[in-house]
């Protein structure tokens, strides 16, 4: 039995999507920073920026265009582009019953981005408040002592992103404020001591602006990027499956499909089961066309599919007990990663019922039930 894969088209479209996403997120970051600087609330700043750069349309069109291309390549040209695009935009893949437009709009609410921004902004305000409290102390005499130098140095470290130094910074603030209380006399600070404290204020204010920019960049890059990439990968995988199933259906020489883990597979999960068990005596991850697992196996799935060629149709029923050997070979950590803590305990006691404890298991389907267009 020979095999062939067209997964390379997903790699290419992923690179193309990253380029589009990078530009969109850079524009979004700048707009959010501008809006917050003009004293908009975080919620309004994010929502306005999303609308101004037309973020949902950019993401939706990028995913739709690439999904159509993936279908075309995976189906060996058997999918009409216009029909495919209409289907990609209008089809409801998942239990959430949302079209691609609905998913992008849901993603564009960016609740996680707003929450991360609010935390960053609150931290910024609290640090500015600490510096302002120091500046309000009345001083009478003194020089620029070591404890002030330590305070300024630690402040610079913290505000430049060395958050591991924050505890030391807070300790230096406490020490400095204690010394200030002892130095206060007659309500007239000396110029040098006042200048030293002004250095703390200047450092704090400059760094708080840097912290603000970092907060926006982190919120957009860490949260918005992950969510957009997750949606794009999932939609690409579904398009890849649709095209692959169509070609398998149209080609009489294809008798089955093999599912394999991608080299970048990050951790054990349901993919390891689908790709690792041999239910038909055909090899690990090999299934006849009338008994296929539902792909993608989970959001963000990057498993690969390839055709199994042969002269005779495979007419076998699945032997689910064949999976027990695979399960027995898993470590305790592997069991927990795939089945969860509670599920791992249950499957260890009763491995024959592994399907009951595997979250995301949707059974095996005939290929005709998996082709959507």
What does this structure look like?
The protein is flat. It starts with a strand and ends with a helix. It is mainly α and 373 residues long. It folds into three domains: 3-113 and 218-251, no CATH class; 122-207; 270-370, no CATH class. It contains 14 helices and six strands. It has a four-stranded antiparallel beta sheet with strand order 1-5-2-3. It has a two-stranded antiparallel sheet with strand order 4-6. Helix content is 63%, strand content 6%. α3 (55-74) packs across α5 (100-107) and α7 packs antiparallel against α8 (166-183).
SSE layout and pairings?
Blueprint: E1 3-4, H1 8-37, H2 42-53, H3 55-74, H4 81-90, H5 100-107, H6 111-135, H7 146-159, H8 166-183, H9 191-250, E2 254-260, H10 270-276, E3 286-288, E4 292-293, E5 304-309, H11 323-328, H12 332-349, H13 354-357, E6 364-365, H14 367-370
Antiparallel strand pairs: 1-5, 2-3, 2-5, 4-6
Helix pairs in contact: 1-2, 1-3, 1-9, 3-4, 3-5, 3-9, 5-9, 6-9, 7-8, 7-9
Spell out the key features of this protein.
single chain; 373 residues; mainly alpha; 3 domains; four-stranded antiparallel beta sheet; two-stranded antiparallel sheet; 14 helices; 6% strand; flat
